[in-house]
Amino acid sequence: MYLSRFKSSVWFPVVVLLIAMTSIQGGAALAKTLFSQVGAPGITALRLGLGTLILLLIFKPWRLHFSKAQRLPLLLYGLALGAMNYSFYLAIRTVPLGIAVGLEFCGPLALALASSRRLSDFIWVFLALSGLWLLLPLGNAMGNVDTRGALLALLAGGFWVVYILTGARAGVGNGPATVAMGSLIGALVFVPLGLSFAGSGLWYPGIILPGIAIALLSSALPYSLEMLALTRLPARVFGTLMSLEPAMAALSGMIFLSERLSGMQWLGLLAIISASIGSALSAPRKKIRLETVSE
Known about the structure:
Layout: H1 2-7, H2 11-33, H3 35-38, H4 40-59, H5 68-91, H6 97-113, H7 119-135, H8 147-170, H9 178-196, H10 208-230, H11 235-242, H12 245-257, H13 263-282
Helix pairs in contact: 2-10, 2-12, 4-5, 4-9, 4-10, 5-8, 5-9, 6-7, 6-8, 6-12, 6-13, 7-13, 11-13
């Protein structure tokens, strides 16, 4: 009885979404612990390959129909999904998880602010740029952030933007099952690429169980939970809650990877989170919201 009442309460989708974010960042932390054995490209191949198999079993995308106009967006959507995962995992080799997610999150934030015209929108732009200044290695104080890793995180954010724009077109009429077909397209390109640069540890039998755990934590579980929350929350509330993801990533890095951020870096994350929340709350209903995807 208590469980059924909780499911019907306003807090249920909020808790579900927090669990989804925790799952995503926990999966990323687990993946990073295996880099020394398998390498970031190998983990990308493992996560994308196993994650795709799980999504195929759940959504059975071969039943979907895509019109001729949807095929190019679907192709770009799948390639962007794979490239986003690949560049993100390359980024967190040398950049703390919280900083990498904060930098990556600037992609959809920039998209949400692209049509800014009001004064309040420029406040969010200023906050986002301030956060970037504090996170990026632009001075001696930020020299502990690897430049190449930071650029890869920003690149992942750029692919996230492509994912959002093309996914909206590719998914018309097919809904969340579109991600399974997109994941398959991305896997066909980036699984062979990741395998070609993988470490020898990828071929040890003991790596399969952690690989399945990463695929579940980073794909199947959070995606299902996000879809459940999205159907029960207004878009702007959903976007506001998702703005907390960089902080969740930083906490995951601290707990599971012993990563520590400086006070200035925490201020940078706070500025980006504040800009995301402000953008989500002040956006007109017709404006594009901050979409999500499992890293």
